[in-house]
Automatic annotation (TrEMBL):
Gene3D superfamilies: Biosynthetic peptidoglycan transglycosylase-like, DD-peptidase/beta-lactamase superfamily. It comes from Paracoccus aurantius. It catalyses: [GlcNAc-(1->4)-Mur2Ac(oyl-L-Ala-gamma-D-Glu-L-Lys-D-Ala-D-Ala)](n)-di-trans,octa-cis-undecaprenyl diphosphate + beta-D-GlcNAc-(1->4)-Mur2Ac(oyl-L-Ala-gamma-D-Glu-L-Lys-D-Ala-D-Ala)-di-trans,octa-cis-undecaprenyl diphosphate = [GlcNAc-(1->4)-Mur2Ac(oyl-L-Ala-gamma-D-Glu-L-Lys-D-Ala-D-Ala)](n+1)-di-trans,octa-cis-undecaprenyl diphosphate + di-trans,octa-cis-undecaprenyl diphosphate + H(+). The gene is pbpC. This is peptidoglycan glycosyltransferase. Residues 603-678 form the Penicillin-binding C-terminal domain. Keywords: Carboxypeptidase, Glycosyltransferase, Hydrolase, Multifunctional enzyme, Protease, Transferase.
Length: 690
């Protein structure tokens, strides 16, 4: 449009507004008949942290970044109306004074100096994405602006501008622009930041700071100069603001808890804003922790972390992948929901159920020796056997034989039902629970494990964890008693800290799945439950990976992020006694249908045998070894490789020095000259937490 035609149009509009009543009536009818575009401008879905801060935003359907304006700094609004439309509060859609000024300037200078457009006219153009260089386009804007003023209050019109104002590329609206250029919400802007965001929409592409920083700075400074001239800011503030550099790079939009946010949107279609219980500070630190955990381990390794308040069931942090953008490590797979083998992390539940059923006590003795269950002969992870141990030791050392004996006594189906009631959903082979379940022979999710351990932490009463406010709820019925839950917690609290970590008061267990595919660690204190998984999402092995080596240090770092809450004291009815003071049936574990030898009382001496180490065992030859005899008549003499180690002991056991690596022969001789011998292989390797 030529400058003269532009001026003529503007003057004509002013004349129409000033003519007689008859023409005004027809003009009002013309405005009233205006077809309005859709005024419900779509904005991207937002997922919010518990404090209302933005976790992740999503683009609208056409790929643009456009968000609810939210709270905007008043200084920005003052600068905006001063620069664009100082009589916005009083005009009815068009500003006659501004139109007269723009028309006079156009005729005087032979070019368009100022457009005379009000904020309402700009909203009209943005709603329809209409042309600005044609007279018919300008006339449409005028008509629509007048119609908008009749239909909407000023606040609604300003809200539309704050949503639609263009800021270059695919970014629209004050909030998206503030996040893009400054990485902050627009509720608190410096004068320099506010002035730049006022200036950019006039020419969003030619003033983009990342491409044309000089043009952006000059436009910003003109806004600052006018703000100082009109008294919005002082001259000193304007001068100081002009020294601030303009941003030279676009920032990424917030993407905390990205996989969780995407899942919540899928589960809540049509929601515009989704509030969560996620703590943004903890979430940020947990994501950094997961990223560090896989550094230097290859692109295919990933990690998942979950932290919740087990008192309320609220999830505080959830990391589904170490790098959600990395295709090489399948970062798009949420490993908090993926089905994986739990390794040894289900063992504490077998102990809790056994304690609750009165089958055992933490100080009950049990045999860790080669055993057969049907045609299955499980091995300990290190292929060693430790003879007679307490159940406390068996759980801390994560021995397999004792826990399978407990699972057999409880029954696999009862164990599976207990896990289900604790909130641990199971994916069972052939949909049938077997004894291998307790060693990791089923699929579980990391969220399920965290839920189950929350049940132990809560005294046997579970809670369904949730990242949505008000969605967490207690599970029905107690899974096991508060005493059994405390006994297991007390044992797990005795687990040593991983190498390099400081010992702290919380209960935890590690797990390593068959073939080193999954490394896990789950734990809790008096208020929080945390779970960590590391591995490859495609299920391939990670050679040499153990839960104690990989996952446990991450779990300790996770709990270092929060204020520790002590574990609760034992319930009043808890039986805290040494083995020798326990009721006779609890002193030594007896399988179903058997009677404990202790409970049955002494019997006639039977044939002399070597109870530990059993023949063919692989033992740790580094330190002292307890050699135990069974039967015969004392005193007993013990030999190692034919040499006396203990002579005439009045106890059927002896603590002797380790034989060193290689094969060794242990012999016991009783008072009647009877003897028994076992040949074992002694190795020297570290005991690994699993």
């Amino acid at each position: 449009m030529s400058s003269r035609r532009f001026a003529s149009l503007l003057l004509a509009i002013v004349l129409v507004l000033g003519i007689g009543a008859g023409m005004r009536d027809r003009f009002d009818d013309w405005v009233a008949a205006t077809d309005l575009p859709r005024l419900d401008v779509p904005v991207g879905v937002e997922v919010l942290a518990r404090d209302g801060s933005l976790l992740r935003a999503f683009q609208v359907g056409d790929g643009r970044w456009r968000l609810e304006p939210g709270s905007v700094d008043p200084s920005f609004l003052d600068m905006l109306t001063l620069w664009e439309d100082r009589r916005f509060a009083s005009h009815r859609g068009i500003d006659p004074a501004a139109i007269l000024r723009a028309g006079w300037q156009a005729m005087r200078h032979g070019r368009i100096v100022s457009g005379g457009s009000t904020l309402t006219m700009q909203v009209a153009r943005l709603l329809e994405d209409g042309p600005t260089g044609r007279w018919d386009g300008k006339l449409r804007q005028v008509r629509l602006a007048l119609a908008l003023e009749r239909k909407l209050p000023k606040a609604a019109i300003l809200d539309l501008y704050l949503r639609l104002a263009p800021y270059g590329a695919n970014v629209e609206g004050i909030r998206a622009a503030s996040l893009q250029w400054f990485g902050k919400e627009p509720r608190r802007l410096t004068p320099a930041q506010a002035a730049l965001l006022v200036a950019l929409p006039q020419s969003p592409e030619t003033r983009r700071p990342d491409r044309f920083p000089g043009a952006a700075r000059r436009a910003r400074d003109r806004v600052l100069a006018r703000a100082a001239k009109q008294g919005l800011i002082s001259g000193a503030e304007a001068m100081a603001a002009m020294t601030e550099p303009v941003p030279t790079a676009r920032r990424s939009f917030p993407a905390l808890a990205p996989l969780l946010a995407a899942r919540l949107i899928r589960e809540n279609p049509g929601a515009g804003r989704i509030e969560t219980t996620i703590d943004a500070r903890l979430q940020r630190r947990a994501e950094a922790l997961a990223s560090r955990a896989v550094q230097g381990a290859g692109r295919r390794l990933s990690a998942a972390i979950l932290l919740a308040d087990h008192r309320s069931g609220e999830i505080l942090a959830e990391v589904g992948a170490a790098d959600w953008t990395d295709q090489g490590s399948a970062g798009f797979v949420d490993m908090t929901r993926a089905w994986r083998s739990p390794g040894s992390t289900l063992k504490p539940f077998a102990y809790a159920l056994a304690f609750d059923a009165g089958l055992a006590h933490p100080e009950t003795l049990i045999e860790d020796r080669p055993s057969t269950f049907g045609r299955w002969q499980p091995q300990n992870f290190d292929h060693q056997f430790r003879g007679t141990v307490s159940l406390r030791q068996a759980l801390i050392w994560s021995l397999n034989i004792p826990v399978v004996k407990l699972a057999e006594a409880i029954g696999p189906n009862r164990l599976a039902q207990g896990l289900d009631r604790a909130g641990i959903a199971l994916r069972l082979p052939a949909e049938t629970a077997g004894l291998a379940l307790v060693l990791g022979g089923a699929g579980v999710t990391l969220e399920g494990l965290a839920t189950g351990y929350a049940t132990i932490a809560r005294g046997g009463r579970g809670v369904a964890l949730s990242a949505l406010p008000g969605r967490a709820h207690p599970l029905t019925d107690a899974v096991f008693s508060a005493v059994a839950a405390w006994q297991v917690s007390d044992i797990l609290a005795g687990n040593p800290a991983p190498h390099g970590a400081r010992q702290r008061q919380f209960a935890y267990k590690t797990g390593t799945s068959y073939g080193h595919r999954d490394a896990l660690s789950v734990g809790f204190d008096g208020a929080h439950v945390g779970a960590v998984w590391l591995g490859r999402p495609d299920g391939t092995a990670v050679p040499g990976a153990f839960g104690g080596d990989l996952a446990a240090p991450v779990l300790f770092d996770l709990f270092d992020m929060i204020s520790p809450v002590p574990l609760p004291p034992p319930p009043g009815e808890t039986l805290t006694l040494p083995n020798s003071a326990l009721p006779l049936p609890l002193r030594r574990f007896a399988a179903s249908g058997q009677v404990s030898r202790v409970a049955a009382g002494p019997s006639a001496p039977d044939r002399l045998t070597l109870a530990f180490p059993p023949d063919g065992a692989i033992i740790d030859g580094r330190g002292p070894i307890i050699v135990k005899a069974r039967g015969g008549r004392g005193p007993w003499t013990f030999l190692v490789n034919g040499r006396p180690a203990t002579i005439a002991s009045h106890r059927p056991e002896s603590l002797i020095s380790g034989p060193g690596p290689g094969f060794a022969h242990f012999t016991v001789i009783d008072a009647d000259g009877n003897s028994a011998t076992a040949t074992v292989k002694a190795e020297q390797h570290e005991l690994t937490l699993r």
